[in-house]
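Supplementary notes for students who missed Thursday's class. We covered one full example, reproduced here. Read the sequence, then the structure, then the short commentary at the end.
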Amino acid sequence: MSLMSIFSGVLTMPSELITSYLGMQLESPVVMGACPLTTQSEAVRQIVAAGAGAIVLPSILQEQVMHRMIKATDPFGAIERSGYQPQQDKYNGGTEAYLRTISRLKGICSVPVIASMNGSSAGQWLQYAKEMESAGADALEFNLQQAVFDSKETSNDIEARMCDLIRQVRELVVIPVAAKISQRYTNLSSMATQLRQVGVAGLVLFTHMPQWDVSTDRMHWTINWELSPTNSIGGILEGIVRARAGDQAISIAASGGVSNSEDAIKAMIAGADVVMVTSAVYRRGPDAIRDIVDGIERHVESSRFRTLQDFRAACPRDHAGDEKSVRLEYIDPLTRKQAYFDPTPVVSQQTGDSFGHQT
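Structure (token representation):
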């Protein structure tokens, strides 16, 4: 179903699916993740009608805000000094239109609107968070980019820098702040604890990572952005388990690989409060959200729980164990079988005509 097609049905959310995220009560545990679709009023209307409990706007980039600041005094050098490129505004609307988008969506949207920022260093540009809050954002998701560019900077230095950045943002606004992080931490439990100590209300696990490649013609590395592949929930589940072991109270959103209701249920059993869906909506339209919501509802009912909150309360809260048990979880499946599952699909060597007859 096309996002821009007429969406006649409106999904009435059952009260049994109410959940909490970042201190906000949501009518559904399925959240539309950060992407350009959430800047479009009609797309948002269809997404919310399909059952989304909240929407996350695409991130405003550090480079965009810095360009706006610098061009007031150095209009000719602003682009070079900031790293800004005009196409960035096509992604999220630009710094001025972004604020108007927040205000517009708050006027038509019945669910929380979560603004987003993406950056790797502290500075005056973080003041933009206050403008987002003033425009009406219900919460802020900060996409922490590690930006490792100094070979002498240790992992402790990087984590301290990221935490200091989040601390500064948290001191600027009253609305709850979530940190969206990557999987590239030696001890995710420790990072979750550190972020909680500087005031984050939740974690988004994980930021979508681009695909790196090398051009054999140009003999140079390249970066491509792709949709999250289906059947890629495993790494997300591991991250949720690790982070939840470090903090039983922090809000956690599963992000990057939730493509169906089974993925969503697994993520909540692992410890997620909500699941963010993006790639599935690009593939199947708003019906992807409706299908996931319906699947969660059916699972809760078949599990004989009255509400989603009852179901989540019955889920194990501490999957982590001591060194022996963690090692066993790794080694046991490795050594138990002689044959290993191959997830690569088998491509048929047979061909056929236009009528499906094999030749």
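Commentary. DSSP finds 14 helices and 13 strands in the chain. The chain has a mean pLDDT of 89. If anything here is unclear, bring it to office hours.
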